[in-house]
Amino acid sequence: MNLELLFPYLTLAAYLLFTLWVGLIGYRSQKNTAEDYFLANRSLGAIILFFTLSATNFSAFTFLGFAGSGYRIGISYYPMMAWGTGFAALTFYFIGDRVWRLGKQKGFITPAELIADRFQSEPLKLIFLAVMVIFTLPYLTLQPIGAGYLLENLTDGQVPYFIGATFVTLAIVFYVCIGGMKSVALTDVFQGALMFVLMIVAFMAIAQGLGGISEANQAVYDLKPELFSRQGADNFFTQKKWFSYVCLWTFTLPMFPQMFMRFYTPKTTDSLKVATIFYPIITIILFICPVSIGMWGHLAFPELAGKAADEIFPLMLGEYTSKWLASLVMVGALSAFMSTLDSQLLALSSMMTRDVYTVYFRPQASLSEQTLVGRLFIIILALIGLSLAYQPPESILALATEAFTGLSVLFPTVIAALYFKNVSSLSCMLSIIFGEGILIGLQTGVIPSSFTLGFLPVIPIVAISSLIIILGTLLFPKSMHH
After folding, report:
1. Phi, psi angle pair for 44, to nearest 5°
2. CATH classification number, 3-396, choose in 3.10.50.40, 1.20.1730.10, 2.60.40.1640, 3.40.50.300
3. What is the pLDDT of residues 161-210, one digit of tens each?
4. Of 307, 429, 461, 478, which has the maximum CB count within 10 A?
């Protein structure tokens, strides 16, 4: 058999074996405690924290979604994403620092434990938990979808979409189950570095195949000048929409359970400062690559529509780079999916274990029993994600934006929990219920789209949710006990 045809399989095998080996290192250094399994014993240094925050956040969406959006919308997608995500790094510090201090002082492991302690309210804790789990699942589903697209493309269809998605998910389940947060954080450093280097390699290689960066841009400009406008193709970005997206990332990023729980893990709060400073720099360098590749896609693949545009990244690699380089870069993309999915699975399973199982079913559960139950939840959640990935949606951006808006509703409650004293738990509950109600109303068409006044739903929803907390606190003040 031709070595060229074997290459994708060899790279994939080498990458997965190395990832599993790193996962085993995490497992070997493990003490059998819930804190160690779910939070790496709160001992992450600045470098590992920075990589695990970045790798966790750059997902299938960063490779496939960004390139697809570059193809559909154009260059203006880049500053919106780089700005919005870079801006969100400020919340790492504003929210992360407080979360870290409270977590260390009171031993919290999950986001809901912090909320329950601050408001002394069981119903609020359960609502908060439910929203986090429900809206993380669609985002979790993006990762197997991405992996499936990628393996199918890489092997020229020899590995069908769903088999590829299942295979990668199983590999992740294996190392998350055995090693917990230590394995996840260690594999994130390896996967984050790999993803960063290989994304830049892909960008340079495709640019070279097109005769250089400025030549490629000029050719696209001659073909479709609107891709270079501030509004993007079809006037996608109005000023209101642009502003909405920047806010969306800022409100949502720290609300992802996998990000929120990262705030508990550093050894000192200085590690968070380092991550806050370096994170925007990475987004500025990294994000231009997939967006440009997506735009250049019009030169070789002019007529892609809908779902097909999300596959422009692997298509361009196949067209302009050698089989072995394409295989390597795909592994970089795969590491982006895996480093997000492993964290999502671990975060959700720790919440189900700590906030549901040990509270309502087995308060006396030993630490080793908690880790065992955590592992079972990882398997169950992975299967849910896979079943949702069986029929992928029309566009990755649309799926992500819905998941993000649902999570951003929690932002006002978290700020109230961390920074204000006399907030009533009732006003926070109403804020979340109303916020999600409006989102569902807009999705189902019960509330007309004109309600958002030209912004994305996130703006009116977070504004109303915040207002409810402020009014509720004025009407039903509550002296909180500490």
Report:
1. -75, 135
2. 1.20.1730.10
3. 899 889 888 888 887 777 777 777 888 888 888 888 989 999 999 999 99
4. 461
